[in-house]
Specification:
Layout (H helix, E strand, L loop, with lengths): L1 E2 L2 E3 L10 E2 L5 E4 L2 E3 L2 E3 L1 E7 L6 E5 L6 E3 L4 E5 L9 E6 L5 E7 L2
Parallel strand pairs: 1-4, 2-12
Antiparallel strand pairs: 3-12, 4-11, 5-6, 7-10, 7-12, 8-9, 8-11
Length: about 100
């Protein structure tokens, strides 16, 4: 498993660095949603495959997110009111997938 670094999205998407999805999955520090305040963090998943859809499962998210081939998904990473809560990310197919964790504000 690789630990994804949360990047500052305020600098703009072109400045965000994407990494290859790890075969064993990744981990990321989630955003905080408590007391009316939100520090929104998202996982951006790019599936560059030409013929294979992939499912992404993120701890703390109740549903599996389908990322069709050739598409990009933006998945909210909410860790609740716990600062520094680490979420696990699992990929059905990691080949041809790149990911980035981005704090939106």
């Amino acid at each position: 498993m690789a630990a994804l670094t949360v990047q500052d999205g305020r600098v703009g998407l072109p400045a965000v660095t994407f990494e290859a999805a790890a075969e064993a999955g990744d981990t990321v520090v989630a955003g905080i949603d408590a007391g009316g305040w939100q520090l929104g963090t998202v996982l951006i998943v790019v599936n560059a495959s030409v013929d294979t859809d992939s499912e992404v499962t993120v701890g703390g998210v109740p549903d599996v997110v389908d990322v069709p081939f050739g598409e990009t998904a933006v998945i909210p990473l909410k860790g609740g009111g716990i600062s520094g809560n680490v979420l696990s990310i699992a990929y059905e197919h990691h080949e041809d997938m790149t990911v980035a964790a981005v704090r939106l504000w």
